[in-house]
UniProtKB/TrEMBL annotation:
UniProt keyword annotations, A-Z: Membrane, Transmembrane, Transmembrane helix
Designated name of the protein: DUF1361 domain-containing protein
InterPro entries, per the entry: DUF1361 (IPR009793)
Transmembrane annotation, as ranges: 20-40, 46-70, 77-96, 116-134, 146-165, 200-218
Pfam families the record matches: DUF1361 (PF07099)
Signal peptide residue numbers: none
Length: 232
């Protein structure tokens, strides 16, 4: 079984380059804010955000690689790469919950830390959305637009569940390999006894709806821009 993947056209490659430049500039801002804070305070309080941004870059890198793949991509390559993408995808919107770390700290204005965390959260969210666009288009080309949107919805709901697992149960993406027993036990417990774990499903549904509405907004803005360019 093979999946046909259309390579980017010249206009699409140009748009991809523009996206990379903007995302690169935005990521650079986050890095500068974190590094300057370390220089200012001599503390590494928010250096962990750089690691979180690196994890958010993984699904974006994987989806970009799939989009740039020429010819016919065999399922034996697509399936493991797609599974790896889904495993790391929650790391992108997860950074939104790093706002939990915001509190007044000596030596740094409160507004500076707010801007720092918001910058990182924004980059995580945009990397996630950009990555999901690639994956949705990949699915839609093969199975149709409706299935593509179904895939995007499920991916965002699963990512919200992953956010809960990471923020509250402190699991990481690689725990599926290093600590599978505990991970699967906690997941099975919440699936089999949902009434006893209302916070799990509250976080999953609320964050899932929020992420889905944000994603739909981004996609709609992109289509409005395409329509405006077509009229010129």
């Amino acid at each position: 079984m093979a999946l046909s993947i259309t390579t980017y056209s010249v206009p699409q490659l140009r748009q991809r380059l523009h996206l990379l430049l903007v995302l690169g500039a935005s990521l650079a801002l986050s890095v500068v804010l974190v590094v300057f804070r370390v220089f200012l305070t001599h503390k590494i309080s928010f250096v962990f955000l750089l690691w979180n941004l690196f994890l958010a870059l993984i699904p974006f890198g994987l989806s970009t690689m799939l989009g740039l793949s020429a010819g016919r991509l065999k399922a034996r390559v697509l399936l493991p790469v797609g599974a790896t993408w889904l495993l790391f995808f929650p790391n992108a919107p997860y950074i939104l919950t790093d706002l939990f770390h915001l509190e007044p700290r000596a030596g740094v204005p409160y507004w500076y830390d707010l801007a720092l965390i918001l910058s990182c959260a924004w980059n995580g969210l945009m990397l996630g959305y950009a990555s999901l666009v690639d994956m949705q288009q990949l699915v839609a080309r093969r199975l149709g637009q409706l299935i593509g949107w179904g895939f995007a919805t499920v991916a965002l709901l699963l990512s919200s569940f992953g956010i809960y697992l990471g923020r509250y149960l402190r699991f990481n993406s690689w725990d599926i390999l290093t600590n599978p027993a505990s991970l699967f036990y906690d997941i099975a417990t919440r699936l089999l006894h949902p009434a006893s774990h209302r916070d799990t499903w509250g976080v999953t549904l609320l964050y899932g709806v929020f992420l889905l509405l944000g994603y739909a907004t981004v996609r709609l803005l992109g289509r409005l821009n395409e329509a405006a360019n077509a009229e010129e």
